[in-house]
Amino acid sequence: MAKNSLNPISFFGQKERHSPSFGGNIWQSQNCTKNYYASSYAPKASWHKKNIQKEYFFLRFKQSSSNHLYKDIEGGSTYRECNRKYVVKAAPGPSFESESPAFDSKNILESVKNFINVFFKLISPYAMIAAALSITSASLLAVEKLSDISPQFFIGLLQGLIPNLFMGVYMAGLNQLCDIEIDKINKPHLPLASGEISFTTGVIIIASSFIVSLWLGSIVGSWPSLWALISFCVIWTGYSVNVPLLRWKRHPALAAMCIIATWGFIFPIGYFLHIQTFVFKRSAVFSRPVVFSTIFMSFFSLVIALFKDIPDIEGDQAFGVQSFSASLGQKRVFWICVSLLETAYGVALLMGATSSCLWSKIITVLGHAILALVLFYRAKSINLKSKASIASFFMFIWKLLYAEYFLVPLVR
């Protein structure tokens, strides 16, 4: 080949005496390009210069427009240094298309959980549980033999239970709607007082529950159950609604009568008669267990009526609600409640001791004796200056009530 004839490959294969040693980065590739044009062969190498420039700008563009990693493949000659090859290693980024459904599902699940939590705070679950146990216990009072525990019994139990639970939602929500300002002081955690549920949403919930409750109660066709449902509704509407001649909760005696009427008479008598007359088609005979249940639950409901105002004394005084706690003082009302409960357990012990059924005598005497001792021990440790301690003891009273609903059907 002639000396003036230049082969670009052979040219880059030679080691130039004045060329610096080259590294493996793009800046060095640029220097190779400059050295190439500085040589005497520039007129013949213009074609190769254009190719190198294109490759250089292409690589610079790829480097600046992505987060890719480049792996340098080393070579031994000057040509290989200037004409390096690169392997792209793409770093995986977040896939929004694949994560979007999961993200939405998570949000939906959290929203449902939050709604359930707020709804439970609205309905006062401890009272709802007590109502369900009360209806179940009263229904079991109508059971005279094991064969009475049948599908017919359970269907009748649900016919009385479900409408009452919807009415319980109505009553709990109505009470909070009428007490928003008081609850901001006494119970700011409640959803209407805290703003977790708007006033309009609260109205929709309670109106829907009221309509569903009366509709279900009417289609069942049981007069004792419907009587209990309507009585429950009328009493607690009068207890809560702030209109002339109503809002009976402002008067301690009327407030206590509302609670005694509900837990002492309406629930035990109404749902006993529902099972006895509507389900079993028997005559309405008030047996010994029914009489005991009415007396005992009257004591217990009086205690609940008195005790429920002990932790709310601050808000009641601010809004002129003259409860027994505001009039007599927290300590005196507290020990009145404990004394009434111990009296109720004394009546239960007497009732069990006079039973002609041995297994009923053992269970009722032993069970009520244990509950009476636990109550006395717990009452000694109460701190009346602590609102949290008082609230905890109030929940303890409801647990005692739950336990009683398991013992009452065993009294024979």
From TrEMBL:
Annotated transmembrane regions: 118-141, 153-178, 199-220, 226-246, 253-273, 285-307, 333-352, 358-377, 389-408
Keyword Ligase: no
Entries under InterPro entries matching the protein: AtHST-like, UbiA_prenyltransferase, UbiA_sf
UniProt key word Lyase: no
GO MF annotations in UniProt: prenyltransferase activity
Keywords of the record: Chloroplast, Membrane, Plastid, Transferase, Transit peptide, Transmembrane, Transmembrane helix
Gene3D superfamilies in alphabetical order: UbiA prenyltransferase
Pfam families, alphabetized: UbiA
Subcellular location(s) of the protein: Plastid, Chloroplast membrane
GO cellular component, one term: chloroplast membrane
PANTHER family: HOMOGENTISATE PHYTYLTRANSFERASE 1, CHLOROPLASTIC (PTHR43009:SF6), HOMOGENTISATE SOLANESYLTRANSFERASE, CHLOROPLASTIC (PTHR43009)
Similarity annotation: Belongs to the UbiA prenyltransferase family.
Annotated protein name in UniProt: Flavone prenyltransferase
Species in which this protein is naturally found: Glycyrrhiza uralensis (Chinese licorice)
